Amino acid sequence: MAKMTLDQLRKLREEKKDDMSRREVEGKEIQVIVGMGTCGIAAGAKATFDAILKAVDTQNLAGSVVIRQTGCMGLCHVEPTVEVVVPGMPATIYGRVDATVAADIVRKHIVDRKLVNGYIYDRPAVDIIKS
Question: Can you give the pTM of this predicted structure?
Fold first, then answer.
């Protein structure tokens, strides 16, 4: 490996600091959890995860949203799956989440506080959801 210059080292340090700040949980109330079991990965969960990261960055939400990975959520037939937990809203699991749907979830569910219909596969019963 070639030697790095001081400027290259500084740039690398800043990039890694940004990556590590995404993993910080403290002070972040919103969670996005991507199912990354073997079934999810085979269905495209890595691309979904990357699309969520990009959408969160685009919306300048990195300071308030923690993005996590988990194993199989038990909904293999609708992989990739994404669970979204936003205070004041029901925890919701979305299925068949590709890059376009991932961007919609960030924009509509997290920013606008509206559920993304057509992709919901698990949420609390209607009688306990506040209108």
Answer: 0.80
